[in-house]
């Protein structure tokens, strides 16, 4: 049985015909699925560092490194899920499998959080709970990594299945696909906001078990909505069972080519003769994408701070609004609000306006969009550093190193700027990697985008650990357990500098990139002449 056989059979070209499958009616089902799934997922991810420093009793540096390692795994496992879908089970079945794994893992997580935890203090600037037992800690980590596996099967395949609902052979196919990614993130941002505001409030004020149980219920709704839309989706093409083997050979050939280039070795033509034309083409595609992927890792390091150090920083602020005290994770909602406000403006105002000047279906090229977001992210880290320096100065001037001095509103700009950066860079990267790989491997293309964010999370975790170790040897750690005695501002400045360098490197790479898709515009005159030659 073909991997796509669970879907109704029919002509995939009927995507935009009235009464046909695919197109926006099917895409809206998947957008709704992503909204509910994000509510459940970020019910864990958004407040995870507070659970680690609370019930599990980890230090700030250890908790930040653990969250970064987990987030890196969350972003790397989509490679596994995408490969399994593109070469074996198909995207539809992969999403169903992810839904089942989500229900299992969130059920286990809810059960593990029911164990009572003693609290040693009430100060938000310090770690309060004693360390949890090794058995409880091991069970918790096994559970959240099972969540990561479910995410690995869900995210690339649900998004690729949504983009598949639009045929690029149709006159408006490219523009509709680009618009789909914009509105997908619009919906996901609403899910993000609901999770970090409502579910984090439940976790902080009702209990962790209630919050994680609500996430389980969201995953049940997500799977149900996905199954209800089955008859709306375009039929998947039969899977290529040999795609995984060819891709493995392609990765190996690409790695050898990179090593030969680094070592300045020649005589690799023999290897070229041993590969098939498809594998040679795959190697050329990967070699083209590799520089873009590598520079995107730095952006992953920047956004890793939102759910780790930004959240801990927020726990030291005055979070009172009237008689309500907002959970630290709720501050992340400003990132989602920025995305929600920006996506309609970008899709309905900026793109048509830019299209008048450039003639490009999406207004600007994908790489130009990505680089603009990277520049905004660098500014966001600089703003975060200035806010943290102001907060430390206020606390020390008042002689109250253990009490919040600044309002939470001081942190809003850095969250908003990260949201704006995501609108440009994250959405741009997803569309870029989806469109620049062969059609049979588009889930893998989206997984490559996510893996760059994953490696960035790993790199952030290692950088936090290394910085903590180095600064402890010379005095107070930059990540001291009492953040009013720490120096997160120094760490933010370092990231801002690295991100600024990334912008320049990416700009250089973008100017020389030739898009794989023939209907895509290129960035230089030489690239345009090359495209004309290819078409002729």
Structure in words:
70% of the residues lie in helices and 1% in strands. With 536 residues, the protein is mainly α. The protein has a two-stranded antiparallel sheet. A hairpin with a 2-residue loop joins strand 1 and strand 2. Helix 1 packs antiparallel against helix 6 and helix 5 packs antiparallel against helix 8. The two termini are 41 Å apart.
Gyration radius, in Å = 24 Å
**How many strands?**
2
Write the H/E string, N to C: HHHHHHHHHHHHEEHHHHHH
Classify the beta-strand content into a percent band: under 5%
Largest sheet: 2 strands, antiparallel
Mean pLDDT, all residues: 79
Low-confidence stretches: 1-6, 8-19, 120-127, 266-275, 518-536
Helix content: 55-70%
SS-based class = mainly alpha
Shape descriptor reads globular
Q: Strands of the biggest beta sheet: in what spatial order?
A: 1-2
Report how far apart the termini are: 41 Å
Helix count equals 18
């Amino acid at each position: 049985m073909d991997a796509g056989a669970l879907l109704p059979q029919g002509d995939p070209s009927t995507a935009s015909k009235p009464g046909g499958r695919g197109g926006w009616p099917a895409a809206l089902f998947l957008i709704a699925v992503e909204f509910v799934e994000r509510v459940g997922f970020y019910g864990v991810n958004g407040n995870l560092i507070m659970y680690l420093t609370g019930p599990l009793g980890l230090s700030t540096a250890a908790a930040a490194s653990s969250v970064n390692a987990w987030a890196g795994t969350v972003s790397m496992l989509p490679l596994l899920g995408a490969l399994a879908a593109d070469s074996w089970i198909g995207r539809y079945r992969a999403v169903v499998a992810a839904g089942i794994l989500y229900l299992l893992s969130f059920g286990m997580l809810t059960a593990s959080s029911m164990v009572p935890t003693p609290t040693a203090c009430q100060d938000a600037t310090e770690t309060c709970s004693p360390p949890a037992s090794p058995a409880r800690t091991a069970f918790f980590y096994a559970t959240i990594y099972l969540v990561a596996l479910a995410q690995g099967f869900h995210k690339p395949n649900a998004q690729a299945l949504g983009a598949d609902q639009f045929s690029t052979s149709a006159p408006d196919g490219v523009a509709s696909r680009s618009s789909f990614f914009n509105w997908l993130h619009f919906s996901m941002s609403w899910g993000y906001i609901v999770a970090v505001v409502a579910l984090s409030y439940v976790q902080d004020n009702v209990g962790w078990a209630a919050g994680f149980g609500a996430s389980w219920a969201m995953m049940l709704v997500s799977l149900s909505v996905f199954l209800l839309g089955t008859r709306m989706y375009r039929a998947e093409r039969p899977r290529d069972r040999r795609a995984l083997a060819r891709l493995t050979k392609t990765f190996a050939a690409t790695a050898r080519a990179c090593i030969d280039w680094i070592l300045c070795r020649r005589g690799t033509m023999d290897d070229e003769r041993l590969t098939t034309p498809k594998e040679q083409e795959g190697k050329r595609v990967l070699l083209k994408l590799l520089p873009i992927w590598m520079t995107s890792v730095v952006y992953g390091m920047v956004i890793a701070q939102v759910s780790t150090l930004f959240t801990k920083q927020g726990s030291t602020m005055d979070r009172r609004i009237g008689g309500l005290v907002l959970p630290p994770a709720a501050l992340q909602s400003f990132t989602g609000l920025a995305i929600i406000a920006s996506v309609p403006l970008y899709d309905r105002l900026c793109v048509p306006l830019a299209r008048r000047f450039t003639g490009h279906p999406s207004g600007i090229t994908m790489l130009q969009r990505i680089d603009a977001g990277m520049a905004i992210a660098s500014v966001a880290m600089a703003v975060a550093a200035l806010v943290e320096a102001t907060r430390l100065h206020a606390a020390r001037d008042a002689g109250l190193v253990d009490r919040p001095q600044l309002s939470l509103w001081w942190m809003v700009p850095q969250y908003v700027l990260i949201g704006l950066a995501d609108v440009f860079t994250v959405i741009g990267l997803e569309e870029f990697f989806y469109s620049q790989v062969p059609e049979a491997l588009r889930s893998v293309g989206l997984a490559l985008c996510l893996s760059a964010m994953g490696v960035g999370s790993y790199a952030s975790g290692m950088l936090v650990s290394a910085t903590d170790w180095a600064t402890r040897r010379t005095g107070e750690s930059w990540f001291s357990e009492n953040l009013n005695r720490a120096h997160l501002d120094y760490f933010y400045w370092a990231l801002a500098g690295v991100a600024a360098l990334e912008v320049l490197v990416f700009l250089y790479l973008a100017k020389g990139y030739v898009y794989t898709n023939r209907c895509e515009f290129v960035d230089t005159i030489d690239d345009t002449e090359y495209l004309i030659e290819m078409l002729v």
